[in-house]
């Protein structure tokens, strides 16, 4: 497999991962920057669980569709404008995971409550506007909310993660939803009293980020696992 085909393959697998792991159903998308360009690969407008590496679109940071057949996802502006704002970002995942959405709708910020949550030691900002990101302007707003971070929660909508490559962006989204799920469970067990949660200190969170974060050495193992499960699980599984 040449480098370009390998990248396309990763994009398709990444999209199947977010569907198989319950971060998305019919809607959601993962993209990768074509190295050294202002262009990116993204699937056509269908469930990420149906992503096909041979049917990807090439879109640029101004939202122009340069190649590929089919309709783009209406929220491709999220990807276009984050790639424009963040030259070091080469992978972006946008999904609608239920636990993250739950946190936004009870006004609870993300807290680091387990090792894999350490990736978010710097905090996860919130984008508060409701509705889909279907314009350049709204894409710029999301990019501004994300700032220099790895993830942004989108109120009543979902999450967007951005990282140095498509694999780590995808793993970050999986880790964030796992973390949010634990936080929701802990809040419930604590009768809704957030003060009872023993969230990691900044120092503890940074320690675990270095050990287990999606850009750490351990990420290779995480991608291997998520990719293998995504290939083994049936659609909707
Ligand atoms: Zn969305």
Roughly how many Å apart are the termini? 28 Å
Q: Helical proportion?
A: 40-55%
**Total beta strands:** 8
Radius of gyration: 17 Å
Side-by-side strand order of the widest sheet: 4-3-2-1-5-8-7-6
In this structure, how is the largest beta sheet organized?
Answer: 8 strands, mixed
Order of helices and strands: HEEEEHEHEHEEHHH
Which cofactors or ions or other ligands sit in this model?
zinc ion
Secondary structure topology:
Blueprint: H1 3-20, E1 29-33, E2 39-43, E3 56-60, E4 65-67, H2 76-85, E5 91-95, H3 98-105, E6 126-127, H4 136-146, E7 151-154, E8 158-163, H5 166-189, H6 202-212, H7 219-232
Parallel strand pairs: 6-7
Antiparallel strand pairs: 1-2, 1-5, 2-3, 3-4, 5-8, 7-8
Helix pairs in contact: 1-5, 1-7, 2-4, 3-5
Bound molecules: zinc ion.
